[in-house]
Design brief:
This protein has helices at residues 6-20, 24-43, 58-72, 90-102, 140-151, 214-219, 229-235, 261-273, 288-294, 331-343, 353-360, 378-385, 391-405, 439-452, 457-479, 486-491, 493-499, and strands at 2-3, 50-54, 77-82, 108-110, 124-128, 155-159, 182-186, 204-208, 224-227, 250-254, 278-283, 299-302, 320-323, 348-350, 373-374, 408-411, 417-419, 424-427. With 509 residues, the chain is α/β, with parallel strands linked by helices. The chain folds into 2 domains: 2-222, Rossmann fold (3-Layer(aba) Sandwich), CATH 3.40.50; 232-236 and 248-499, UDP-N-acetylmuramoyl-L-alanine:D-glutamate ligase, CATH 3.40.1190. An 11-stranded mixed β-sheet has the order 1-9-18-17-16-15-14-13-10-11-12, sandwiched between helices. Strands 4-3-2-5-6-7-8 form a 7-stranded parallel β-sheet, with helices on both faces. The radius of gyration is 26 Å and the shape is elongated.
Length: 509
């Protein structure tokens, strides 16, 4: 699913009105009616106080339509107009008059904090103050209204997007934003819904197709793309009947140190589970017996040193290499990493201490093969690109790094981002149970396996990240968020691949 900018959505609105020969108010009625239907379906006529806060632009117009339709169904509705300006949109005025003409309970005008209504825990609050068009901070008393709503404990549904949030621009410092329990957005999610600084304001998200111009949406590149099951499935490459282990590549997994052999074991297990034809592990000598016992399917080569990596020598020609998990940052290991990069000419997956070594030795970037995949968590990313003041600056700096060295960045988080110099992909699989030691090691193995099997680096990153998250989802369904460990994620990688082709939920994990 594409994510469009606010400007792109405005253009889609304009073309829809022009091509379908409807008015802007007709389009507003269409969109708001769909929101009303979703609300009515869930409330089922319940006797719950509904309090709708409308701005004086088109988002407020949406709220007025929804309020009118709820009133027609007999709900206990009070509409409040947040009068933050003397300017009103044309469609707001049309729907304001419609509400006044159909009920004696006229909307209540809010002009200052003295007008704030009481909001109770059992109330249903509809936020339609600002929509996608917000491009400036809120005035002080409206900020306090947002705080009043957030502090009420009421259930809050945001129409299109939570008020105070900008769709695709950085938020001013100390911004006040509606914290919604549920957000119903029109046609496309917004980029800010998935970024760490603002994602928690969204709550549960639902996207409604309001029938915007199909041709424009299909031909226009969005600012990002959401990756779900269908997008991941489209990347999957089925296996030929006459394939053999050599067809799917030989993965070299380099990692581990004394006390951290488990990391390279997890990564290598995941590489095998994700489809690498063969796996050879290069680890310190202390890991030999552990790895041969824990993972008999893999071959093992050991470093001359018993505890750390110092001299990475091997005779095979790997299809792809994964490096960094559990290696530490000893100076001898830094030299060994340089040795590996000088020898390796194919895209490499680098994680964990491999990233920390890169951040301390920026000249090593010049040795990375084109299409290599780096998988930092936020702190590792900060070491690579420096501090940022907001998520949008973080994305821009990350893209600059990708462009300079022709890399792919996989920025791990609740919504893991896959970035190239020009494109942004947002993963939707995964859950909080994956915040557990070793989960990133498993991702390294899966990504290396994808490269081994001949996927392009970008396809390997997108599909691998989705499968990693889906494996975590299957593990959480079995063990709970709290009960998931990294081995559970690795063990379910194959089930995650099967799940791409299953239409019904399979609980047999």
């Amino acid at each position: 699913m594409k994510i469009f900018s606010a400007n792109q959505l405005r253009e889609a609105d304009r073309l829809t009105i022009e091509k379908q020969q409807i008015s802007s108010n007709d389009l507003m009625e269409r969109a708001a009616t769909l929101v009303f239907e979703e609300i009515h379906k869930r409330l089922e006529g319940a006797d719950i106080p509904v309090k709708i806060f409308c701005g004086i632009g088109n988002n407020g117009g949406d709220g007025l339509v929804i309020g009118r339709l709820l009133l027609e169904q007999g709900y206990d509705v009070t509409i409040y107009i947040v009068n933050y300006s003397d300017q009103r949109s044309k469609d707001f005025l049309i729907n304001y008059d419609r509400v006044k003409n159909m009920t004696k309970k006229w909307p209540v005008l809010l002009k200052s904090e003295d007008d704030f209504p009481e909001i109770n825990v059992g109330d249903f609050v509809l936020d339609a103050i600002f929509g996608v068009g917000l491009n400036r901070p809120l005035v002080d008393w409206v900020e306090n209204l947002v705080r009043h709503i957030n502090d009420s404990g009421a259930f809050v549904l945001a129409v299109d997007m939570p008020s105070g949030l900008m769709a695709d621009e950085p938020m001013p410092s100390k911004s006040v934003i509606i914290k919604a329990n549920y957000t119903i957005s029109f046609q496309s999610a917004k980029l800010s819904f998935f970024l760490p600084d603002t994602a928690e304001n969204i709550g549960e998200l639902q996207i409604l197709d309001i029938g915007l111009d199909r041709e424009y949406l299909q031909k226009t590149d969005g600012v990002a793309q959401l990756i779900g099951k269908q997008e991941a499935k489209a990347l999957y490459r089925p296996r030929n009947k006459f394939s053999h282990k050599g067809t799917f590549g030989h993965a070299l997994m380099v990692g581990g140190s004394y006390g951290k052999i488990g990391s390279i074991c997890l990564a290598s297990t995941a590489a095998l589970k994700a489809g690498a034809g063969m796996v050879t592990i290069f680890a310190p000598a202390c890991g030999y017996e552990i790895l041969q016992t824990a993972l008999p399917e893999a071959m093992v080569i050991t470093d001359p040193d018993d505890k750390i990596l110092t001299d990475i020598q091997y005779e095979l020609e790997p299809a792809a290499t994964g490096f960094g998990v559990g290696v530490g940052t000893d100076q001898q290991t830094e030299k060994a990493m340089e040795q590996l990069l000088r020898k390796n000419k194919k895209p490499i997956v680098i994680d964990a201490d491999g990233l920390n070594i890169l951040s301390r030795n920026k000249e090593l970037f010049e040795l990375l093969p084109e299409g290599s995949i780096l998988t930092p968590h936020p702190k590792e990313l900060e070491r690579l690109i420096g501090e940022w003041s907001n998520d949008f600056e973080k994305l821009e700096r990350s893209r600059q790094l990708c462009k300079k060295h022709n890399l792919i960045l996989v920025i791990k988080g609740a919504y893991t981002l896959t970035l190239t110099a020009e494109e942004t992909f947002i993963n939707t699989s995964g859950n909080p149970g994956m915040a557990t030691a070793g989960s990133g090691d498993v991702l390294t193995g899966i990504l290396t396996a994808m490269l081994c099997q001949g996927y392009s680096p970008l396809s390997a990153a997108i599909l691998g990240v989705y499968l990693h998250g889906r494996s975590g989802d299957l593990a959480a369904e079995k063990f709970s968020y709290e009960g998931v460990v990294a081995g559970d994620i690795a063990a379910r990688t194959g089930a995650a691949i099967l799940d791409l082709f299953q239409t019904q939920k399979n609980n047999k994990n």
